[in-house]
Amino acid sequence: MNLLEELRRSYRPDRITTLFMGESAPRSGKFFYTQNTNLYRAMQSAFGWNDFLSEFKARGFYLDYLSLIPVNGMERKERTKQLQASVASLTHRLIEYKPRSIVILLRSIDPMIRQAAQQAALAVPMYTTTYPGRFLKNRERFHNEMTVIIPNLLASR
Questions:
Q1: Which terminus has fewer CB within 10 Å in the chain: N or C?
Q2: Per its UniProt entry, which superkingdom is the organism in (predicted)?
């Protein structure tokens, strides 16, 4: 297991209430749990917590990825193939995690996450957001979508 994966697992709560699902960690080595990604900044802004990662974990929130292999930079066919191949692994993790809800952080992976949840016999509320990448319009859309989703996540604890 690499250092970033160890770091991610150190933030895994004892009981996962909400599982946030991304596509994959970036190839660049930046990582949500090292607090240096657009996703981290957008999530911190949406929730508004000062000690974001500690609060994230304390509330039973956890971020995982469909693919444990970085897919950004891959050609479309190769990327899709890798993501589809990751559904089985995610299915096993969902069985282990047993989250009460799932937030899918990228519209294009929605069908694959739902497929894994179905295969895991997991019937929980699922929400899908726009990925808050480098474009301001997407970050604004993400923030607006999370403003609607967050109260549902906090109420379901």
A1: N
A2: Bacteria
Give phi and psi for 60, each to the nearest 5: 85, 20
Report the pLDDT averaged over residues 126-132.
96
The residues spanned by each domain of the chain are: 3-155
Residue 102 CA to residue 137 CA, distance in Å, equals 24
Compute the distance between CA of residue 135 and CA of residue 114 in angstroms, rounded to an integer.
26
As assigned by CATH, the class of the 3-155 domain is alpha beta
Q: What is the pTM of this model?
A: 0.93
Count Cβ atoms below 10 Å from residue 93 Cβ, excluding itself.
16
Burial classification of residue 115, based on how many CB atoms lie within 10 Å of its CB (0-12 exposed, 13-18 middle, 19 or more buried): middle
Among 102, 118, 36, which Cα is nearest to 65's? 102
In angstroms, the CA 83 to CA 87 distance is 7
